[in-house]
Give the backbone structure.
Amino acid sequence: MIAMDGALEFWLSDRSKENRDRVVAQFRYLRVRAARKFHRPGLDRADLEQVGAIGLIKACDRYDERFQTPFEAFAWLFIIGELMHYVRDHERLVRPPRR
């Protein structure tokens, strides 16, 4: 069995909004790290962190401990996925040539 942190245990036993907010606050460092990774000129880092929070919330809602996947690895994929969609939708379609 995978060892879980306190907030995640509370979330898995009682899936209330307050417990989910605790999990999102506890794993804030994941979305900050991902936002740093996807930061580009023209994109605000705060916006990227908010998009990462959406991915973290989706990961909380879809996480199932029966698969014995560490939550951090599961959440990281959701956060990265949301950020990839956001960056793709907000970048220019045609890039000017370098010269």
Q: What stands out?
A: DSSP finds five helices and no strands in the chain. The mean pLDDT is 84.
